[in-house]
Design brief:
The protein is of the alpha/beta class. It has two domains: 2-168 and 335-353, Rossmann fold, CATH 3.40.50.2000; 182-333, Glycogen Phosphorylase B (Rossmann fold, 3-Layer(aba) Sandwich). The protein contains eleven helices and 13 strands. Strand 11 (255-257), helix 7 and strand 12 form a beta-alpha-beta unit.
Length: 355
Amino acid sequence: MRVAIVNKHVKDGLGGSEIQCDNIARGLNQKDHEVFYLAINGNESEDYNTEYEVIAVSENSSSIVQKVININPDIVYWRYNKKHLYKSVKQIKSKGIKFIFAISHINDTKKWNFKWSNNPKKLIYNLFKMFKGRYEYLGYKYVDAITSLNPQYLESIKASNKIYIPNSITSEKVKFERDKPFVFWVANIKSQKRPEIFIKLAKSITSVDFLMVGDIQQESYEWIQNESDKIPNFFYLGKKSPNEVNGILEKSLFLIHTCKPEGFGNNFIQAWLQAKPTISLEFDPADYIKNKNLGYVCDNDFEMLVKNTQELIDNDELRYSIGKNAYDFSKNMFSIDKTVEKVEKLMLDLVSLSK
């Protein structure tokens, strides 16, 4: 089977969906499928050093479609949100190529997505984005199947062929040493992730250290680099690989999550696979944290966040018990091999229908 995967590549930007696509590409390649990774805004001169082929494409439907047609795959696995979806899927499907759309963000499920702004220029831009998103949403009419990293998101999509396929990530780790106990925060640093709340929490609880990891992706957060000099128990460690993050998690007390609802953060899964509880300010993907006893969800209440954080710091027995629940729940649920098998089965089923 010839497979084309469409997304940014993990070598160009370390994000959650990019990690998932790399896992799937490597897994399908190991199962002897021909995998072509169309890297949006990729570097043509870059040696991606992958066992599957990486092809750089520009961020527009014409470039994407032309590359897909040149490859002539049996199926396309699209995990680039709704960006450029409508024109791309229409033209790709006209060539008889099967098409899977993979939901990776809550906004993928919304027909209309509007953000208010008091800035007139930004308001106009947000209105344009809203109508553009609604236009791209029409592309769902042409896809053969929709997958979602969060089972709740499938409820919002009207499609006859839709399936929940969990994210997955390696639990391999790089050893990390630190004597003083600490809690941990990890994500790409931008407004959606609300890192400032974790720093505020560090100022409220001084009995342990607060370690932050992430790539600063918005200039408005450059100030974080200097906060380690101002707050005695806060330490910004910069950008780290998933294996380095796993090593830090293994030594941590637990993970703090302050991000707004998005998809299904890899950092949740990484923490659970290292037997660590999670305290989430707001987001509880698939209600797993509450229903599976994996930590706390604070209903977007900072005072509750402080209370729950202090409780898990003080109560070793409770922390270990929740951590064990997290590991037992996650070790099979988020297996890379199982995720690849589910994606492969869906692809083979769809391709067989056209033969």
